[in-house]
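Before relying on records like the one below, remember that each one covers exactly one chain. Contacts with other chains, cofactors or solvent are not represented anywhere in the record.
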Amino acid sequence: MTSEELLDKAFKKVAKIDSQADSKLEMIRRKSVSRISSANDVLTTALQRYHNAFPSVKERSESFMIELMCTVTDMDRLKQALSKVGWAIGKLEDLRRNYTRAVKQAPDLNRIDDARKEYYGRTSSVIKRLDSDLKAMAAAREAYRKIPMVDEEMPTIVIAGFPNVGKSQLVERISTARPEVAPYPFTTKGIEVGRFDAGWRKVQVIDTPGLLDRPLEDRNAIELQAVLALKYLADVIIYVLDPSETSGYTMEKQLHLLDEIKGGFGDIPLILVENKADLIQSDSGRLRMSALTGAGVEDLVKEAMRIMKKEENALPREPLAKAQEED
């Protein structure tokens, strides 16, 4: 909620509160204490819920999801907003305690009314000071809601390459993902996640936003999501080339980006495939496919599975005796 919406909710609730007592003075005193307590409960409960809904951002731990969150939102602004909300929760509790005491000690109706109204005014001031912070948190929440669920433990194929070379079309063909496919760059605004059953196990496929051939520090937030997927998730990288150059990028540029990926992620198995075989047939000897028609896609997937099985079989296994002892 915005600050105004929070205040409206709190004060509408307290307006319904009534109380009974032997005298008018005591009745107003009890009603005022109840209204102060109720307003405080509504506001602090909401703020605490908002605050707790965000994962800890004190430390940028080595995690795909944490780093992705840092990419899609202004983390420093979010930290500031969370800090101010934490301050407000404490301040509201101080106001509740101080003005409850003032109402209980007030000698007459006027002093009770003055204390209650002053509480409302100071509480409103605290909440209104949070307006920009609540909006910043709401914006971060909307950004996080667009992040797909990723299983960081599942075997994963990451599809990489320049924009508009056919990555999304390939992901759509081999997995459950349904990314937007259109003939213009940066159709993919963030990572898309699909899965398929390879028989021996389920495999995750990541469609990344197109990478451009430029230094890491010059890449935008969309491109950095692709870099993070390669860094944290890839068990196999499929690098898609467009020899037809209908994507708008020359083969020279595409191969230069390939060299950059090899240099930065050389320890990850990489499969090079030329797409758009329905438009052009090169004599490069590389794997070829058409994500549009499906030609060659099955062979590409088989090659990825062959590499994944090989990598999995190469993992060290605990001796049987040790495993049995632990069981």
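The longest helix spans residues 75-105.
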